[in-house]
Amino acid sequence: MAGVLNIVYAVIVALVAIVGFAYVLTQSDDGTGKETRWSDWGTIAAVALFVVGLVWATMF
Questions:
Q1: Phi, psi at residue 35, to the nearest 5°?
Q2: How many CA atoms lie within 13 A of 16 on its CB side?
Q3: What integer is the mean pLDDT of 24-48?
């Protein structure tokens, strides 16, 4: 049971980290006058992959 709770906790923390990072990155003004750029989404995807990899390596 404790193992399941650790997995659930790790997934929740990872989701909060990814969503929080995405929110900050998409809401920040980079001075280009454009809305969210493709490079922002690429950065978000890279961070998401990294965080998921950390969670995966920790659990398995």
A1: -75, -150
A2: 6
A3: 78
